[in-house]
Amino acid sequence: MLDRGCWITWYDLPEDGRDDYISWLHGSYISARLKTPGVLWGASYASEEKVVHPGEKGRLSHTDGAGVPAGDRFILVFGGETAHAFADPTPAEFHASLTDEDRKMLAMRVGERSNILTEEGRADGPEAAQRSSDLTSAPCIQVGSFNCDYSEEDELAAWYAQWRLPSMEKLPGCMGVKKYASVSGWAKHVIFYEWASVQARNNVFVNHEASNSEMEDWTDRVVRKLNHAPGSPNLARRLWPEA
Fold first, then answer.
1. pTM check: above 0.90
2. What is the domain-level CATH number for residue 46?
3. 63 Cβ neighbours under 8 A, 6+ residues apart
4. Among 122, 152, 173, 235, who pairs with 48 as Cys (CB 3.0-4.6 Å)?
């Protein structure tokens, strides 16, 4: 069984009541969603602060759309057999089925946005053997969510297929990487890296293209054409299940 579908939610939380929300999320909400047929696993994360990304030269651009929710400090991820696992019921239908107390907890989320996604391609990294047997995502993830002009999407697909995903197969500390296309949500494209730890990512990812100037130049050209969601890309540490 493979998890070809994904539902990712980004949001912030107020300080007041945060611990109660986290306890509810881990103790009630995730287990309730896992009862949906086709939903295979769930995990929650907290985003890291002051993250350094490869080749940062002011090349990352972010949407200034006022209608795009800007929450990104917490990330909730579910994996499913296909994207349709999150369309029957939809997130709105699932939330409507919850109790009043559950919906009060949901209302604590600030700047919430989400994407339902279908897998475009994947690659295993050197640490793939560390994956959980139930497919739950890694102790550390990096998630980029973005759009680009339709005229640039063939090059974007080629870059992922020919360079970025194959390069991750050799990078120490990497458990794997998945490229998704969106079924619903603001971002049309999502890239989902899995790492053994935050430190493992920081040790190798920032400078991993330095020895290949041709590919580093290609990366620079592609990345400058992307329009990221607020806060993207996020580096995040898993809160639940505990690593």
1. yes
2. 3.30.70.100
3. 147, 186, 227, 228, 229, 230
4. 235
